[in-house]
Structures are given as structure tokens and as C-alpha cells.
Amino acid sequence: MDITAVNALPYEEFVNIFGNVVEKCPIITAAVWSRRPFVSLNALDAAINEFIDTLPESGKEGILRCHPDLAGRDLQSGTLTWESREEQTGAGMDTLSPEDASRMARKNEEYKKRFDFPFVICARMNDKANILRQLTERCQNQRAVERTRGIEEVKKICRLRLQSLVLTDAPNKL
Amino acid sequence: MDITAVNALPYEEFVNIFGNVVEKCPIITAAVWSRRPFVSLNALDAAINEFIDTLPESGKEGILRCHPDLAGRDLQSGTLTWESREEQTGAGMDTLSPEDASRMARKNEEYKKRFDFPFVICARMNDKANILRQLTERCQNQRAVERTRGIEEVKKICRLRLQSLVLTDAPNKL
Q: B11 at the A interface (CB within 8 A)?
């Protein structure tokens, strides 16, 4: 699908297709539909990012809290969204050694207890070792730093999900 | 569940239970969790309303666009959320006469074409005849008026969904 086809979509189809580019937040996609037509994939991506940036801090925490744990109970019980499952299994979250799985679970709990939202990272841009290392390191951050960092990761995830749905822009539109 | 039990919920359980009090917008519930403890059901309801009010106009349109049509394809195909199905069938949307069903479909399309978001009304507070009458009347409004009106209805729906999940406050907490 190219950007011209995207711009021609009624809101219902637009939300059906793009509603989960930010995990479980179809309101964001539904809101930016008001900004069409988009000149490019980048423009659609930018509109989503701008909408996220206008939210109060509690809203940004809300976005993070709509994300599942990495290698958490939703992966185990098969209740992840299709996109999250692809990303988590791609990063090997379903084939952790018992030691790594237990360390991941422990660190996820520590992270959530400290920050009141889950650890979010763009799994497609990281491998197993990297994810475990960053989870451990990021547990040491201040809350405001992690909120900002988590939202940066949400935007990376969104960008990759968009790219898998819309043809990447031609170079002259980048 | 009383408000003390609500305040003790970790965010994951809170979002699991209350995530759909605003249709398909768990981000809102997840955001207001930051505001706990709530002194009462009214305080939780007020926090949700305040969050909605802080959203830009596009965000309010986004909320409306997360709502299904009344007596629309989601009701027919069985893909409504549990809450919406209860509300729509309670108002008789599944037992419209062929004439009313066809009028409803036509007016829904007219409404969406005019406003770029769906007609939202608190079905539990209205019967079949009322819903059809209001849909017809509200098609005549200005867009900004309907956006505001739609959001008022979202808040009524939210209030009733909350009440079905949390014990109504004792009179001294109203």
C-alpha cells in the first residue's frame, strides 16, 4: 500500500489497518486520521509522534502501560497482539534459557515496581543479550528519564510497524 | 469491588478490569491509574473525564472513531466488545424492523459522511425510537457541536460502565 492509497482510506479502514502501530492505542491512529492527506510515510509517522508529544505525562505513562512485558505472561499464554508476538519471538523471547527467563522475569518486576510502567524496548532492533543488558541498566535510571526513554522506544516500534504496512517513501520524499 | 479494592490494584489488573470503560481506549484508564488513590467512584470518573478534556480536538475525534456504529456491521458480525454488545442489544439494536434497520444504516452513513466520526449515544439511557430520532436530529448539527455532544455521550457510557464494575459510592461520598 502506498501513501496515496493510505490517504484514500475511510477512518474505519485506516484504524483497522494502523490501529495497533502504537500498541493497544487505536485512539492515536484514529486521531491522526484528521491530519490526512499525508505527503509521505514520514509525514504519517511524524503526525503520530506529534500526537504522542502533546499528551500529558500521565498519557505517556498510559501508553507504556498498554505494553506487555517482554517474555511475560502474555507471550506464554498466547494473548499478545499479533505485532508484539512477531517482535518478541523475532528477538528470541520465546526461547530464553531457564536462567535468562528467570532473570528477565525478576528484572521486569523490579522495573515495574520502581517505575509503575513496564520496560519497553524496540525488540526488532535488539537481540536477547542486548535486551537483558538494557533492562538491567535501565532499572537504575530516574523515573522521568525512563518515561522519556520508553516513549522513544514506542516511537521506534511504531515506525517499524508502519514500514511493514506502507511502502517506504521514495528517496525524494524522505 | 469497592474503591479501596480498586486503589490496591496494580496497573495491569486495573487496565484489565477498567480498560474498556472508554471504548477501545485503555490508554485513558492506564493514564488515570497515576492519579490513584481515588476517594470514590466519582473521583475515578472525574479523573477519566478530566483526562479526556485535556486531549486536543483530534484526540476527542479519535475517541469517537474508536466507537462502533449502532446496529452496524460489528453487531451483525459478532465483533463488538462485550460492553457494546450488552448496551446495543439492551436498546434493541439487534431486533430492529427491516425498515428501521435500513433507516439506521442510511442515517449512520449520512452522519459519518458529514462529521468524519460515528454517531455516539449512550444506548442504555435511550430506547430504539429515541436513538433513531436523535440520530436524525443530530445529523443537522454543526461539526464542533457534535464533537462535544459525542464526547458527552462517551462520558455517560463510561459512567455506567464504571458503575457496573465498582460499587456505587455511599451517599456521603457523592
A: yes
What does the pLDDT average to over A143-156?
A: 98
> What's the rounded Cα separation, in Å, for the pair B132 and B155?
20
- Report the C-alpha gap between A10 and A15 in whole angstroms: 9
| Residues A82, A136 share a domain | yes
B75 and B133 housed in the same domain:
yes
Q: Which of A18, A21, A67, A68 is catalytic?
A: A67
ipTM value for the complex? 0.94
Query: Could you say which of B27, B61, B95 is where a domain stops?
Result: B61
A36 touches chain B (CB under 8 A): no
Cell of B8: 490496591
- The answer to whether B28 and B48 have CB atoms below 8 angstroms apart is yes
- Shared domain check, B154 and B97: yes
Query: For the residues A89-98, what does the mean pLDDT come to?
Result: 95
A77 and A46 assigned to the same domain: no
Question: What's the sign of the alpha-carbon dihedral A146, A147, A149, A150?
Answer: positive
B122 and B74 in a single domain? The answer is yes
**Count of structural domains, chain A:** 2
Please state the pTM of the whole predicted model.
Answer: 0.94
Taking the C-alpha atoms of residue B122 and residue B52, their distance in angstroms, rounded to an integer, is: 17
What is d(CA A52, CA A18) in angstroms, rounded to the nearest whole number? 15
CATH number of the domain encompassing residue A139: 1.10.3330.10
Q: Give the domain range for residue B137.
A: 68-162
Same domain, A94 and A36: no
Residue among B38, B51, B67, B111 flagged as catalytic: B67
Give the per-residue pLDDT at B170. Answer: 60
Considering only CB atoms, which chain B residues are within 8 Å of A29? 62
Partner A contacted by B77 (CB < 8 A): no
Measure B102 CA to nearest chain A CA, in Å: 20
* Phi, psi dihedral angles at B116 (to 5 degrees): 65, 20
